[in-house]
Design goal:
This protein is α/β, with parallel strands linked by helices. It is built from 14 helices and 13 strands. Helix 4 links the parallel strand 1 and strand 2.
Length: 384
């Protein structure tokens, strides 16, 4: 169907480009893109794809808008704090371009629903911040024959590539298995420059539009690495791995699997000689820790966050980042009370699981971490 008069005006700067023209704009209107994630990367992706006139945009995200998101997730607004991200996204995209069909799933992208959600889309765009979903989206893209536009961010650096396009390599050709759990901090744990996902997400949107239009040279077999601090871009070329477990000549992974099924041996994984039955993780509340301190009761406090987090706000004690824990076991006593804490209690729980596997029995996890301390004990303590 020909462009309507209003569409001809809206997309006139596109149709003036010989590489796009009216036929290309009509092709965008008839195309569909699935976005995995409506956060930092998903924000510029969704906005620019909707503005470009992509006819159908799917968004998968189970999270709600948090105040800490707004430093980088420009798809959402202060008034939307507490709302489902997919609902906030749909409302914003319809305000930008009411002709775009926005389909949302307010649930995680999992091995149980991935095929059902992704099937029928022309391009899949990975805007996630976790390895289980990143590997799952790659595998599903390979099996469905959908190109996968990849992006990732960390602190001041970002990466972009296109996987599973025609005979090109997939994500596993470059990264066969995820890093050990806890080794790579998330944005919430390690921080990210607010504008960085805008840069990387816009590059991903560019690649998605090129794929839909069939123009230019996609980032197939090329990993674009962006350094915001040095304001440099470099390119790493790589080939399809014929031994890749998903897209190789003899694939060994042929259906969606859980993260634990392929995550490899972790530096924080229990040793082979340890018990196979996980011990419960004892907890201590921030009120109990406060009382211990006021009473002068002997205890050792271990902080497993990163150095920059410790510098921003801390409770004292010994800093041993989670990824460095195996090399600093001699700093943790096996006698007396040892309390481990982090930002919210997740990393410290993983640290305790590992230490228990190495023989420690005197550990307690500070429930809620330094955030709980700030909320309930000392409101003047920053919450980085």
């Amino acid at each position: 169907m020909a462009l309507l008069p209003e569409e001809a005006v809206r997309y006139s700067r596109h149709t003036l480009l010989p590489e796009i023209g009216v036929a290309g704009q009509e092709r965008l209107r008839d195309s569909s893109v699935l976005l995995i994630g409506a956060g930092g990367l998903g924000s510029p992706l969704a906005l620019y794809l909707a503005a470009a006139g992509v006819g159908r945009i799917g968004i998968v995200d189970a999270d709600v808008v948090d105040l800490s998101n707004l430093q980088r997730q420009v798809l959402h607004e202060t008034g939307g704090v507490g709302r489902l991200k997919v609902e906030s996204a749909r409302e914003r995209l319809h305000a930008l371009n009411p002709d775009v069909d926005v389909v949302v799933w307010d649930e995680p992208f999992t091995s149980g629903n991935a095929f059902e959600i992704a099937r029928g889309f022309d391009v899949l765009v990975d805007g996630t911040d976790n390895f289980p979903t990143r590997y799952l989206s790659n595998d599903v893209a390979v099996w469905l024959g959908i190109p996968n536009v990849y992006g990732s961010i960390h602190r001041f650096e970002g990466q972009v590539s296109v996987f599973a396009h025609r005979d090109g390599p997939c994500y596993r050709c470059l990264y066969p298995a995820p890093p050990p759990p806890g080794l790579v901090p998330t944005c919430a744990e390690g921080g990210v420059l607010g504008v960085l996902p805008g840069v990387i997400g816009t590059l991903q949107a560019t690649e998605a539009l090129k794929l839909l239009l069939g123009i230019g040279e996609p980032l197939v077999g090329r990993l674009l690495i962006y350094d915001a601090l040095g304001m440099r871009m470099r390119e790493l070329r790589f080939d399809r791995d014929l031994c890749c477990p998903v897209c190789g000549e003899h694939p060994t992974i042929t259906e969606p699997v859980d993260y634990e099924g392929f995550c490899g041996v972790s530096v924080l994984q229990p040793s082979s000689s340890s018990t196979t039955n996980a011990m419960p993780i004892p907890e201590i509340t921030v009120e109990e820790l406060r009382d211990l301190r006021e009473q002068g009761a002997p205890h050792t406090l271990i902080d497993v966050r990163e150095q920059n987090e410790y510098d921003a706000a801390n409770l004292g004690g010994t800093l041993i980042p989670l990824s460095q824990l195996p090399g600093h076991l001699d700093a943790i006593p096996k006698e007396g009370r040892v309390i481990v804490h982090c930002r919210s209690g997740a990393r410290s729980a993983r640290a305790i699981e590992y230490l228990q596997s190495q023989g420690w029995t005197n550990l307690a996890n500070l429930a809620g971490g330094i955030h709980a301390w700030s909320d309930r004990i000392d409101p003047t303590l920053p919450k980085p």
